[in-house]
TrEMBL record, chain A:
SUPFAM superfamilies referenced in this protein's UniProt entry, alphabetically: PF0523-like (SSF143870)
Coiled-coil residue spans: none
Any single GO BP term: tRNA threonylcarbamoyladenosine modification
Protein localization: Nucleus
One GO cellular component term: nucleus
Alphabetized InterPro entries for the sequence: CGI121/TPRKB, CGI121/TPRKB_sf
Pfam families registered for this protein in UniProt: CGI-121 (PF08617)
The organism's place on the tree of life at top rank: Eukaryota
Function: Component of the EKC/KEOPS complex that is required for the formation of a threonylcarbamoyl group on adenosine at position 37 (t(6)A37) in tRNAs that read codons beginning with adenine. The complex is probably involved in the transfer of the threonylcarbamoyl moiety of threonylcarbamoyl-AMP (TC-AMP) to the N6 group of A37. CGI121 acts as an allosteric effector that regulates the t(6)A activity of the complex. The EKC/KEOPS complex also promotes both telomere uncapping and telomere elongation. The complex is required for efficient recruitment of transcriptional coactivators.
Protein name from the UniProt record: EKC/KEOPS complex subunit CGI121
Keywords (A to Z) from UniProt: Nucleus, tRNA processing
Keyword tRNA processing included in the entry's annotation: yes
Similarity remark: Belongs to the CGI121/TPRKB family.
UniProtKB/TrEMBL annotation, chain B:
Swiss-Prot/TrEMBL cofactor(s): a divalent metal cation
Annotated Gcp-like domain residues: 48-339
Upper classification of the organism: Eukaryota, Fungi, Dikarya, Ascomycota, Saccharomycotina
Entry's cofactor comment: Binds 1 divalent metal cation per subunit.
A biological process term (GO) from this entry: proteolysis
Top-level division of the source organism's lineage: Eukaryota
Organism, as annotated: Candida tenuis (strain ATCC 10573 / BCRC 21748 / CBS 615 / JCM 9827 / NBRC 10315 / NRRL Y-1498 / VKM Y-70) (Yeast)
Keyword Cytoplasm: yes
Protein name per UniProt: N(6)-L-threonylcarbamoyladenine synthase
Transmembrane segments: none
Automatic annotation (TrEMBL), chain C:
Primary localization class, coarse: nucleus
GO CC, alphabetical: chromosome, telomeric region; cytosol; EKC/KEOPS complex; nucleus
Keyword ATP-binding: yes
Keyword Cytoplasm applies: yes
GO molecular function: ATP binding; hydrolase activity; protein serine/threonine kinase activity
Alphabetic keyword roster: Activator, ATP-binding, Chromosome, Cytoplasm, Hydrolase, Kinase, Nucleotide-binding, Nucleus, Phosphoprotein, Serine/threonine-protein kinase, Telomere, Transcription, Transcription regulation, Transferase, tRNA processing
Identification of the protein by name: EKC/KEOPS complex subunit BUD32
Length: 196, 375, 259
C-alpha cells in the first residue's frame, strides 16, 4: 500500500492524501465515471488520469491553488475535488478540464491518481483506511498501487500533446535545462493565468 | 542653505515689497507681499499685505472664452491694483519689483494683464519679474503650510501634475496624458447637465454626497501618469441612455447588487471615487520615488473635500506622513502667489528686460530655474 | 511600512515567516523560506522565495480596490508567464492569489560581500567602490552590460515593455542578468514605447552610476543591438527604436503640452 500525505504550510489543518494506481482497466474506470456522475458517496474523491500530469510539483501546485480558492471564495467549481481538476487545466472551461484530466475510460487501461483533502489527521491509520477503500474501488489483477514519482509521471506524458493543450508550441525551451522542469514551470504559469 | 537672497536689498531697508498680477484664466488677482531680510523660514515668514481678486463669471452652461475673459481683466485691472495698494498701505515707489504671470494659461487674458504690469514698471521705474503660474502655486503653498520639501499635486482647470523638487528644478514626475482634471469635471458636468453655478466641480461634489452605487469607470494609471478621456467617453454613452426618451436597457445603468437604477448622483460619486483614486495613487508613487512623506495639494480642485480625505487616508498609511493644503484664498488663482514667487526670483537676480516679457501659453514647470533653493 | 500592512499580510499568510525586502507605493516585497506546496521545488534557489503583496488601499472604494488588486496581480503573473515562454530571464512564478494581491515567486540573486543583494546596481557599486577606475570599465563589466542590453533587446523583440527599468530592477544570478519587478509592464510594438523604456534605463544609469555611465550605456546599447540580430527586418526595427531614442533624449520623456 503506497500513498502520499502532504500538508501545505499555509493550511496546516488540512491533509492531502494522494495515491496512484497503474493500469486500471477500462471497465473499472467506466464504473468510476458512472458513480461519480451519480454522486455515490463512496466515490467522493478527486480522480485523475496521468496523461498530462507532467510532474508532482505541477500536481501539488494545482491542489494548493484549489484549496486556496476554496478557502478564499475564489473557486469556480462546486466541490474541492472538481476545483482540483479545474486548476490542473490551462483552459477556462470545467467540462474541458474533466475531459482532459478526469477519469479516462477511452483506452483499454489507464493510470489513475486519487486525491482527497481531509481535515488534519495525526495518525496515518485513517489514510491507510482510505487507501484500502480506494484499492477496493480500483484494484484488479491487472492494476497496481504504485508510488507517486516524477520519473514515472514524465514517462507517461505525451509531450507533443501536452505542449499543444498548454499552448507551449511557441515556447522557447532551453536545450541545456531539464525538460520536465521547464515544462513544469510553464504548465504552472499557464494554469495560474487561466481565464485572465 | 547657502543661497544668498539679499544681494538686492535697498539701502536703508530690511525688507522687500513686491506686487503680483495674475490673470492666466478667469480670475484676475493682485497681491502685495513683504519679505523680511534674510533666509525665509518659519521665523521669517512672508507677510501678505493685500490679496484682491475678481472672478469673471459666465452664465450657466457656458465656459469662459479667452476674448471675453481678457476684456474682463482689462476692465478691472486698474481698480484692482488701486485696491491692492490701498489695502496694503503702500505706494508704487515703495515696491521692489512688479511680478506677473508669464504662463502657462490662456493667451489673451495673459496678454491683457502683462500690459498692465509693463505699464506699472515703466511708471514707477521698477524691474519686471515673469513668474510661472505653477511655481507660484507651489511656492505659496510651501510658504503658507510650512511644508519643507513636499510632493506637490497640482490640480486645476488646466493642470494635473505631480511635482517634486530636485536639484533646483520643480520636476514633473507625473501628469495627465490627455485632459486636465478640472476640464474633465467641467465636461462631465455638461454631459450630465449639471449647473455651472457656482462651479461645476463644486456641484459634482455636492451631488456625489448623495450617490450610493458605484459604477466602475475606466481606471487608467500608467506609472506616474494618468489618462481621463476614457472616463468621459464612457460616461457619454451612459448619459445618452440615461436621458434618452426611449430608454434602452443598459446593464451598466443598473446596480448589480440592489437592482436599482443608476442616478446622476451615483455617476458623480463614481466619477469622484475613480478620478481621485487615480490622483492619490500617482501621488503615492511619486512620494515613494523621491522618498518624501509630505504632500502639498494646490490648485482649484485641491479644495475638494473628498480628494483631501482620500489623500489623508493614503498619507496616514505612510510612516510620518503629512498632508498640506491651503484654503481657497491661496488654492484658487491669486496675485499674492505671483508676488511671492516673483519676489524670490527677484532676490536671486532673475528679472526681465521689457522685450523678454512676452507671455506664453505653454510654460512647463520644470523650465524654471529655482535658484532660490539649494537643498 | 505601517503596522496595518504588516497585520494585513500576517492575516493572509499566518505562520509564514516574512522578511521585508522593499516597499514601494503599490506593493511590499517579502522574502520567505517557505514554499507554498513543495519542499523540493525545481528552482535555482530551492530555499528562498519572494512574495509580492499588493495591500488594499484604504482611500479607494472597496469595489475599485478589489478590481485593481485583482487585475494588476493577474496582469503581472501573465506578463511573467509570457517572459517564461519567450525564454527571457526573469523569476518563475510559484503561485498567486489574485483576489488578495499575492504573487509567490522564485528568489533570484546572491548576497554580495557587502551584505547586499546582487542587483546590477549593487554589483556595479561594489565594483566602483573596490576597483581602480581602469578596472571599473574592464572586460567582465562590459560583458555584463552587454548581456543586460541583450536581455532588454529580447524583451522588446517580443513587444513587451518593462516600464520601470533601473539598475536595481536587474538582478545578477551567477553573473547572469535577470529582469525583475513587472508592476508597470505593458505590451507594445511601438518603437516609441521601446525607446522610452530604454531612455528610462539610460537616465537611471546616469543618476546611479554617473562616473562610468557613458561606457555602461554604450555597452548596454551594444548588447541591445545584438539581440536584434542581422535579419534585415529586425535590423530595421532596431534602427527605428534608435531613431526614437534620439527623439526622446532631445525632448525628455514627456511631450510638451498646454499648461
Amino acid at each position: 500500500m503506497v500513498f502520499e500525505k502532504v500538508v501545505f504550510p499555509s493550511y496546516p489543518h488540512k491533509t492531502v492524501f494522494i495515491s496512484v494506481f497503474a493500469n486500471v482497466p477500462k471497465n473499472v474506470l467506466s464504473v468510476v465515471k458512472t458513480k461519480l456522475i451519480e454522486g455515490d458517496p463512496n466515490y467522493e474523491l478527486c480522480f485523475l488520469n496521468t496523461n498530462y500530469i507532467i510532474s508532482t510539483e505541477y500536481l501539488y501546485s494545482a491542489i494548493y491553488k484549489a484549496i486556496l480558492n476554496f478557502e478564499t471564495g475564489q473557486s469556480k467549481a462546486k466541490t474541492l475535488n472538481t476545483e482540483i481538476i479545474f486548476n490542473l487545466s490551462p483552459v477556462n472551461n470545467i467540462m474541458d478540464a474533466f475531459k482532459r484530466f478526469g477519469v479516462d475510460d477511452s483506452q483499454d487501461q489507464s493510470n489513475v491518481i486519487c486525491i482527497k483533502v481531509i481535515d488534519y489527521v495525526s495518525d496515518g491509520n485513517c489514510l491507510e483506511d482510505l487507501n484500502t477503500h480506494i484499492s477496493k474501488l480500483l484494484h484488479t489483477d491487472a492494476s497496481q498501487n504504485i508510488p507517486l514519482q516524477d520519473a514515472y509521471l514524465f514517462k507517461t506524458v505525451d509531450i507533443s500533446k501536452f505542449k499543444k493543450i498548454f499552448k507551449l508550441n511557441d515556447a522557447k525551451l532551453s536545450e541545456s535545462e531539464n525538460l520536465q522542469i521547464q515544462l513544469t514551470r510553464l504548465a504552472i504559469g499557464a494554469c495560474l493565468i487561466r481565464g485572465n | 542653505m547657502t543661497v544668498d537672497l539679499d544681494k538686492r536689498l535697498r539701502p536703508g531697508r530690511d525688507y522687500y515689497l513686491a506686487l503680483g498680477l495674475e490673470g492666466s484664466a478667469n480670475k484676475l488677482g493682485v497681491g502685495i507681499i513683504r519679505h523680511g531680510v534674510g533666509e525665509p523660514g518659519p521665523h521669517n515668514s512672508a507677510q501678505v499685505l493685500s490679496n484682491v481678486r475678481d472672478t469673471y463669471i459666465t452664465p450657466p452652461g457656458e465656459g469662459f472664452l479667452p476674448r471675453d475673459t481678457a476684456r474682463h481683466h482689462r476692465h478691472w485691472v486698474v481698480r484692482i491694483i488701486k485696491r491692492a495698494l490701498a489695502d496694503a498701505g503702500v505706494c508704487g515707489r515703495d515696491l521692489d519689483c512688479i511680478c506677473f504671470t508669464q504662463g502657462p494659461g490662456m493667451g489673451a487674458p495673459l496678454q491683457s494683464v502683462v500690459i498692465a504690469a509693463r505699464t506699472l514698471a515703466q511708471l514707477w521705474n521698477l524691474p519686471l519679474v515673469g513668474v510661472n503660474h505653477c511655481v507660484g502655486h507651489i511656492e505659496m503653498g510651501r510658504e503658507i503650510t510650512g511644508a519643507q520639501n513636499p510632493v506637490v499635486l497640482y490640480v486645476s482647470g488646466g493642470n494635473t501634475q505631480i511635482i517634486a523638487y530636485s536639484r533646483q528644478r520643480y520636476r514633473i514626475f507625473g501628469e495627465t496624458l490627455d485632459i486636465a482634471i478640472g476640464n474633465c469635471l467641467d465636461r462631465f458636468a455638461r454631459v450630465l447637465k449639471i449647473s455651472n453655478d457656482p462651479a461645476p466641480g463644486y456641484n459634482i461634489e455636492q451631488m456625489a454626497k448623495k450617490g450610493r452605487h458605484l459604477v466602475e469607470l475606466p481606471y487608467t494609471v500608467k506609472g506616474m501618469d494618468i489618462s481621463m478621456s476614457g472616463i468621459l467617453q464612457y460616461v457619454d454613452v451612459l448619459a445618452k441612455d440615461m436621458f434618452s426618451s426611449t430608454p434602452k436597457k443598459n446593464k451598466n445603468l443598473v446596480d448589480q447588487e440592489s437592482g436599482e437604477l443608476i442616478t446622476p448622483e451615483d455617476l458623480c460619486f463614481s466619477l469622484q471615487e475613480s478620478l481621485y483614486s487615480m490622483l492619490v495613487e500617482i501621488t503615492e508613487r511619486a512620494m515613494a520615488h523621491v522618498q518624501s512623506n509630505q504632500v502639498l495639494i494646490v490648485g482649484g480642485v485641491g479644495s475638494n473635500e473628498r480628494l483631501q480625505e482620500m489623500m489623508e487616508l493614503m498619507v496616514n498609511d505612510r510612516k510620518n506622513g503629512s498632508i498640506h493644503a491651503t484654503d481657497e484664498r491661496f488654492c484658487i488663482d491669486n496675485g499674492i502667489m505671483i508676488a511671492h514667487a516673483g519676489l524670490l526670483s527677484y532676490r536671486m537676480g532673475q528679472t526681465k528686460e521689457l522685450k523678454d516679457t512676452v507671455c506664453t501659453q505653454r510654460f512647463r514647470t520644470d523650465e524654471v530655474w529655482v535658484n532660490w533653493r539649494d537643498d | 511600512m505601517t503596522d496595518r500592512v504588516v497585520q494585513l499580510v500576517e492575516d493572509i499568510l499566518p505562520g509564514i515567516p516574512l522578511q521585508v525586502v522593499s516597499q514601494g507605493a503599490e506593493a511590499v516585497v517579502f522574502r520567505t523560506g517557505v514554499h507554498p506546496y513543495t519542499a523540493h521545488p525545481s528552482l535555482t534557489n530551492p530555499n528562498q522565495f519572494i512574495i509580492k503583496y499588493r495591500p488594499s488601499k484604504k482611500y479607494r472604494h472597496p469595489k475599485i480596490d478589489a478590481s485593481i488588486t485583482k487585475s494588476r496581480t493577474a496582469g503581472e503573473v501573465k506578463f511573467m508567464h509570457r517572459l517564461a515562454k519567450a525564454g527571457i530571464n526573469a523569476p518563475n512564478v510559484v503561485s498567486a492569489d489574485f483576489k488578495r494581491g499575492l504573487i509567490w515567486m522564485e528568489h533570484l540573486g546572491e548576497v554580495l560581500p557587502s551584505g547586499e543583494v546582487s542587483s546590477f546596481k549593487n554589483h556595479l557599486w561594489s565594483v566602483e567602490r573596490t576597483r581602480s577606475p581602469d578596472e571599473c570599465v574592464s572586460e567582465d563589466i562590459q560583458r555584463i552590460c552587454e548581456q543586460v542590453g541583450q536581455l532588454i533587446g529580447q524583451l522588446h523583440h517580443n513587444d513587451m515593455i518593462h516600464g520601470d527599468l533601473t539598475s536595481s530592477n536587474i538582478v545578477l544570478q551567477k553573473k547572469v542578468p535577470y529582469l525583475i519587478d513587472f508592476g508597470l509592464s505593458s505590451y507594445s510594438g511601438l518603437a516609441e514605447d521601446k525607446a522610452v523604456d530604454l531612455y528610462v534605463l539610460e537616465r537611471a544609469i546616469q543618476s546611479t552610476h554617473s562616473m562610468y555611465a557613458y561606457k555602461y550605456n554604450q555597452w548596454l546599447l551594444k548588447g541591445y543591438e545584438a539581440a536584434y540580430g542581422t535579419n534585415k527586418q529586425n535590423r530595421r526595427k532596431y534602427v527605428e527604436v534608435m531613431g526614437k531614442l534620439e527623439d526622446v533624449r532631445q525632448r525628455g520623456r514627456k511631450r510638451s503640452m498646454l499648461g
